């Protein structure tokens, strides 16, 4: 049986057919959410924040981002520089990728990282954080599978980046600051009120500030509050039941069973056109995946 991860279980639970096809075929384009998480995880695995920038720009070029083409390069640079700062912040708390764990139904690769204190850690990038999103992350297979298999609690770090503006940039301390009219110093927020009109708005990609320099400014200005949320989730109380569900799902991996309620949930499934027209992905132009050599990390790139 193939090596499985919590991401495989997440996709299989969404739709068994989607997970089977997604594991086999390269996407035409990646959503921003997928590209951000793939690039961040590559940086965390390499223990190098600059890898986040390099990986994101690589994904923006191939297979490309699923966003309007106007200003695409500018938007890609903006998000890559933002991600570099986020990666530098996350790497301030070191963690290691766990090894493969064998079970009666096969081998499992946790997607989370192991912290020195024995807890797991998962980082999620979100536009906003509320109680509903917190419940979703706590209940997700991405959390339940790793905590159940390892028996460890999980620290979930939510990085709040805000919604994109009309031009595709995000007005957030992760990305935007204000330059002092006299000394040229940059700040990202005031503790009270707003900056005067004489302060010039500046995006991080327009400056020479390194990621750690930008983080230092954020820390001085108290900009992490409400932008980094930390919660801890213990293994489910019905752990034995969840492990049994995982075994059942593992046995079904590769199924073409379709979950119709998921075909057009939130946004259309990328394989909906194939399913609706009775065609294979190959007939509609999909290419089978190939193993990619990542920056400093060899991995199979998978869509989240």
What shape does the CA trace take? globular
Mean pLDDT: 91
Biggest sheet descriptor? 5 strands, mixed
- Quote the distance from N terminus to C terminus: 21 Å
From N to C, what is the helix and strand string?
EHHHHHEEEEEHHEEEEHEHHEE
- Enumerate the strands of the largest sheet in spatial order, edge to edge or round the barrel: 2-5-6-7-11
Tell me the β content.
Answer: 15-25%
Number of strands: 13
Number of helices: 10
Structural class: alpha+beta
Total discrete domains: 1
Unreliable sequence segments: 292-304
Q: According to CATH, what is the topology?
A: Lambda Exonuclease, Chain A
Give an overview of the whole structure.
The chain is of the alpha+beta class. The chain has one domain (4-172, 227-299): Lambda Exonuclease, Chain A (Alpha-Beta Complex), CATH 3.90.320. The chain is 38% helix and 15% strand. The protein is built from 10 helices and 13 strands. The strands form 4 sheets. A 5-stranded mixed β-sheet has the order 2-5-6-7-11. The protein has a 3-stranded mixed β-sheet with strand order 1-4-3. Helix 1 (6-14) crosses helix 2 (16-24), helix 3 runs antiparallel to helix 4 (50-64) and helix 4 packs antiparallel against helix 5. 32% of the residues are buried.
What's a quick, concise take on this entry?
With 304 residues, this protein is an alpha+beta fold.
């Amino acid at each position: 049986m193939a090596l499985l991860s919590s991401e495989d279980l997440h996709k299989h639970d969404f739709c068994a057919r989607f997970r089977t096809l997604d594991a086999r075929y390269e996407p035409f384009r990646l959503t921003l959410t997928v590209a951000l998480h793939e690039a961040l995880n590559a940086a965390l695995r390499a223990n190098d924040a600059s890898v986040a920038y390099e990986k994101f720009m690589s994904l923006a070029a191939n297979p490309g981002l699923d966003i309007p083409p106007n200003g695409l390069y500018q938007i890609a640079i903006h998000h890559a520089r933002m991600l570099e700062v986020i990666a530098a912040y996350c790497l301030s708390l070191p963690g290691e990728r766990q090894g493969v764990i064998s079970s009666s139904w096969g081998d499992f690769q946790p997607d989370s990282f192991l912290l020195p204190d024995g807890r797991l850690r998962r980082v999620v990038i979100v536009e906003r954080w509320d109680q509903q999103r917190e419940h979703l992350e706590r209940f997700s297979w991405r959390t339940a599978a790793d905590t159940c298999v390892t028996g460890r609690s999980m620290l979930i770090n939510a990085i709040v980046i805000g919604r994109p503006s009309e031009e595709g940039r995000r007005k957030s301390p992760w990305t935007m600051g204000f330059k002092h009219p006299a000394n040229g110093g940059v700040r990202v927020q005031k503790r009270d009120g707003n900056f005067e009109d004489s302060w010039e708005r500046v995006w991080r990609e327009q400056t020479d500030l390194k990621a750690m320099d930008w983080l230092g400014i954020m820390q001085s200005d108290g900009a992490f509050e409400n932008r980094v949320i930390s919660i801890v989730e213990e293994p489910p109380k019905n752990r034995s039941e969840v492990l049994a569900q995982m075994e059942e799902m593992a046995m079904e991996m590769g199924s073409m069973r379709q979950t119709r309620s998921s075909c057009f949930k939130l946004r259309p499934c990328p394989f909906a056109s194939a399913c609706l027209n009775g065609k294979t992905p190959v007939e509609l132009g999909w290419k089978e995946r190939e193993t990619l050599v990542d920056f400093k990390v060899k991995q199979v790139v998978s869509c989240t």
